[in-house]
């Protein structure tokens, strides 16, 4: 009986999540794993003969046929991206079980996997919005208890002019900005452990230097030692994820551009603005890939495709096209 209880799907899911927790994923990621695994397992139990509740479903019950049936029901009301994520969760789950010698093989290759659509870029809306944002935040706001415009502008500029992710910003040290004047660069600890180097133009360099000077005045020269975190809060402590998100949100509010920030984008809208402007100015997908630290060229290509679509839409909006349509009939067949 003890051996059987160890092979309950419900129990093995929790063992898998415990193992995953050692990798320090976000609580959101762990919750998504649990939700995807339990949802599909519940559907598999309902599709079995006879039906089994989740607390009685054994790992041996999960045949490829049963998993295909469960995923078919799971996919019906959901977007392809959600089904793709659930498939990946189950693939990781079975990979863990094979490594732990709980099962002999991974059945997921026999279960259809939808192609995940690439996420569409979500830059700030409005041609001059980034400039309005920076100009507004650079001004001291008397309504703030402890205004620190130098720090706030540095955060926005690193996202808008270097395309850094939230996690990459938090990982920066003072020494991450290296090189002599005119040849500065920022060394980034990228996603998935992929390091990259992004050039720092003189304007961004001056913003970072101004911020560090203001920080030394606030907290003393020791606060800007090379191994110190680059971004700190108003007490001189390292900025955390929630604090950085709140800072960026407050900058949007102070600039009055909240309605121009795509839903759910927040700081990522600044990175997407950086990439979109690269594409608008003629950068290739390979160049965008290197600067943003994308794992695949396809992710970078989306910025070029969106830009091309925007250009076509702009051309199409020209009222002259409507005049032409009245002058020229339908094109001849063939």
Automatic annotation (TrEMBL):
Core-binding (CB) domain span: 7-98
Extract the InterPro entries matched here.
CB (IPR044068), DNA_brk_join_enz (IPR011010), Integrase-like_cat_sf (IPR013762), Integrase_catalytic (IPR002104), Integrase_recombinase_N (IPR010998), Integrase_SAM-like_N (IPR004107), Tyrosine_recombinase_XerCD (IPR050090)
Print the keywords alphabetically: DNA integration, DNA recombination, DNA-binding
Q: Which GO terms describe its biological process?
A: DNA integration; DNA recombination
Q: Name one Pfam family in it.
A: Phage_int_SAM_1
Limits of the Tyr recombinase domain:
119-316
Signal peptide residues are: none
Q: Name the Gene3D superfamilies for this protein.
A: 1.10.150.130, Intergrase catalytic core
- The reply on keyword 4Fe-4S is no
CDD domains from the UniProt entry: DNA_BRE_C (cd00397)
Q: Does DNA-binding appear among the keywords?
A: yes
- PROSITE patterns of this UniProt entry? CB, TYR_RECOMBINASE
| Highest taxon listed in the record's lineage | Bacteria
GO-annotated molecular function: DNA binding
What PANTHER family does the database record attribute to this sequence?
Answer: PHAGE INTEGRASE-RELATED, TYROSINE RECOMBINASE XERC
Q: What is this protein called?
A: Integrase
Q: Which organism is it from?
A: Micromonospora rosaria
């Amino acid at each position: 009986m003890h051996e059987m209880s160890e092979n309950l799907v419900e129990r093995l899911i929790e063992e898998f999540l415990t193992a995953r927790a050692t990798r320090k994923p976000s609580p959101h990621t762990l919750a998504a794993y649990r939700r995807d695994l339990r949802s599909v397992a519940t559907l598999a139990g309902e599709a079995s003969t006879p039906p089994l509740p989740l607390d009685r479903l054994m790992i041996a019950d999960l045949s490829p046929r049963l998993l295909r049936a469960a995923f078919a029901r799971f996919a019906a009301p959901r977007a392809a991206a959600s089904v793709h994520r659930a498939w990946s969760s189950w693939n990781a789950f079975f990979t863990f079980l094979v490594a732990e010698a709980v099962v002999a093989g991974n059945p997921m290759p026999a279960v259809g996997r939808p192609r995940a659509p690439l996420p569409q870029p979500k830059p700030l809306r409005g041609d001059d919005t980034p400039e309005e944002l920076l100009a507004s935040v650079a001004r001291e706001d008397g309504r703030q208890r402890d205004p620190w415009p130098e720090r706030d502008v540095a955060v926005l500029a690193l996202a808008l002019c270097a395309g850094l992710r939230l996690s990459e910003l938090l990982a920066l040290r003072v020494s991450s900005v290296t090189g002599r004047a005119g040849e500065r660069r920022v060394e980034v600890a990228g996603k998935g452990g992929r390091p990259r180097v992004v050039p720092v133009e003189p304007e961004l360099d001056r913003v970072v230097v101004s911020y560090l000077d203001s920080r030394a005045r606030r907290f003393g020269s020791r606060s800007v030692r090379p191994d110190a975190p680059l971004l700190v809060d108003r007490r001189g402590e390292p900025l955390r994820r929630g604090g950085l998100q709140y800072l960026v949100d407050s900058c949007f509010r102070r600039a009055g551009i909240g309605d121009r920030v795509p839903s759910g984008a927040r700081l990522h809208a600044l990175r997407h603005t950086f990439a979109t402007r690269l594409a608008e100015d003629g950068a290739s997908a390979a160049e965008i890939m290197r600067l943003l630290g994308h794992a695949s060229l396809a992710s970078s290509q989306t910025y070029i495709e969106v830009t091309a679509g925007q250009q076509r839409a702009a051309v199409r909006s020209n009222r002259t096209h409507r005049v032409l349509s009245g002058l020229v009939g339908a094109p001849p067949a063939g």
